[in-house]
Amino acid sequence: MSICLIPARGGSKRIPRKNIRSFRGLPMIAWSIRSARDSGLFSRLIVSTDDDEIAAVARDAGAEVPFTRPAALADDHAATIPVIRHALDWLEAEGALPETLCCLYATAPFVRPDDLYAGAALLGEGVDFVLAATEYAFPIQRALRLAPDGAVGMLDPVAYGTRSQDLEPAFHDAGQFYWGRSRAWRQAAEFFGPHTRALILPRHRVQDIDTPQDWDRAERMHRLLEDEQAEAGAGRPA
Predict the structure, then answer these.
(1) Mind listing the pLDDT tens digit for each residue in 39-80?
(2) What are the pLDDT digits (tens) for 142-166?
(3) Which residues neighbour 8 within 8 Å (Cβ) at sequence distance 6 or greater?
(4) In sequence order, what are the residues at sequence separation of 6 or more whose Cβ sits closer than 8 angstroms to the Cβ of residue 125?
């Protein structure tokens, strides 16, 4: 049994009400709920929130909101894993502890059902965790440091003479979803390590949404991707 958990607290500061603000005609959280529902992977789709309005929007979009997240897990310093553990404790008390849980962020409109399937398949290979990740667009070894007086230097001067194609690729968390075994979510002291695998997503489907500029860029990207999908579908034989 697998459950999808969508964390969605109400106190977003940089983009107020970000989780339910309209994104291309739907509340932002509705895109995540739609992808999770369309995947067919989950026996339950639960939103963890402290906010009554978010709860109402989530229910309208097809998710459950069976509990209210405690305020201590909903401030600006709340981390994801304690929120997951709180949900698992609630599920265990209900006699419904799942074998696996996918944490899907409320601000992940680029996630597709196929991505969730691919993550589940990697988890099925016997690891404890899977995260969505993508490659940095530029070699991080070429990063620059700016001194207080404006002088420019390299963070890694040794890499200055190395060709870009010879530098080790680097990846970062896509900030979209994490698969994990309930046992591991509750017990593991470290998320990263030999027990974790990365599902690599193309860079053009990864965008942080933390500022109004991010939001505008994400909407443009999303529209282009949907247009591409529609054109590809129209070109298939009937």
Answers:
(1) 999 999 999 999 999 999 999 999 999 999 999 999 988 899
(2) 999 999 999 999 999 988 889 989 9
(3) 19, 29, 47, 48, 49, 51, 54, 58, 106
(4) 197
Give the end-to-end CA distance of the chain in Å, rounded to a whole number.
Answer: 36
Provide the token pair at 36.
Answer: 């999770």
Place of tokens 């998320």: 191
Whole-structure pTM value: 0.93
In the block, which residue shows the tokens 């969505």? 132
Region 2-135+169-234: CATH code: 3.90.550.10
Say if CB 109 and CB 23 are below 8 A apart: yes
Q: Domain extents for the chain?
A: 2-135+169-234
Q: Tell me the DSSP string of 98-167.
A: -SEEEEE-TT-TT--HHHHHHHHHHHTTT-SEEEEEEE-SS-GGG-EEE-TTS-EEES-GGGGGS-GGGS
